[in-house]
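2.7 Reproducibility. Because tokenized structures are sensitive to small changes in the input, we list the exact sequence used for Riboflavin kinase, including any N-terminal residues retained from the expression construct. No trimming or masking was applied before prediction.
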Amino acid sequence: MNIIRLEPDEGGNVAWPTLSTSKKSVVTVGVFDGVHRGHQAVIRRAVELAKAHNSFAVVVMFDPRPAFVHTYAKTHAGIGVPDGVHDAQAISGVDERLRMMDELGVDYVLIVHYDLAFAAKSFRFFLGRLVGKVGMRTLVLGQDARMGAGLEGDVKKIGTLAQATGVFELDVVVDNGGHVRVPADFTPQAPERPGEPSDPLEGMSKAERRAWSKRVNAREVRELSSTNVRWLLSQGRVADANRILGHLHGVEGTVTHGEERGRTIGFPTANLVAPIDGYLPVDGVYAGWLIDLGSEEAYAQSQRPFGDLDGGGVASIAQPYTSGGVESRLAPHSPYRWPAAISIGRKPTFNEDSGHDERVLEAYAVTDDWLELYGHRVRVEFARFLRPQIKFDSAQALVDELKRNADETLKVVGA
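Resulting structure tokens (single pass, no recycling of outputs):
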């Protein structure tokens, strides 16, 4: 797989690369946040059609998320997102998305830096450039895809454009996932009881469902959607989110020095603090996995295979994707993967004494080995919600509970 980063100029124009003078492309477009089962179906279809027609399978991926860019502009007097501002609502980081696209057989990923000037371009202009420069002859989209200024370009209008021009075909993937109702403006809400929380609508009558929808100002979204995944994770419903994703939800970051209190009570943890790539589920204790991706320096070198941008905003050549061996570390039986009891929150048992109240992720690897992970990039994957955060009366009470959490983790993920 090859990767090209594209930076729009001040007018929102992109210097799209010519991938070949003879070979055409099957293209799909989007953010692919989380690369859930719906995204996977679209990408697989693009790869399938590309192989059938001896074409390139091309993903045009926007980064940062358009929703993040437009929300930031609305709350900051219409300005774009400055460099270094972290998108805490993104389900997955770019590195994770690229790994999955590589596994699915994509030939090229064109990463477009999404900004307000680029967003102002019409979908007709955008698709015309893909046809003329990237060699697009087939466009593969999900059934609810929209693009262009004001999101005017829906599947119906794009299909009409394809028929009228005759220069590309539109292939629409129907995911058959159905719809669900999600609060329009939801906030994370930790479950009050131990165990994986259930659907709040389960067992409700139609009248009760309507009352719930009205109370929370619910809107209908596709079940296989990033919005639904984000909602589920914000409520601690990790197992349901993983079902939509088709894989375990995970976050990635660098292990930093914490207060090292866990070491003193026999439960040393890998501590991650913001910024973290990926959406942090609601506060609580989870069963999952801790995976060592290697030192931050080595990881950064292996995951940034991009040349400098030239004056036109295009990397001078398409850089081949390299994982730096990350796939082998992520493998199911990798020696760098350990079952882990994961805590997200503000350390209610100790924060009054320490004076620290920041939200942190702590992962305790259930292993007899001593792990030294400071300065390493790690991935933390979530399998199931175990319990809400609790303030314990003593350190010993906390130790006893942590032992139970470790045992529960092994039962959940398999010893």
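The domain at 249-298+327-413 is CATH 2.40.30.30 (Elongation Factor Tu (Ef-tu); domain 3).
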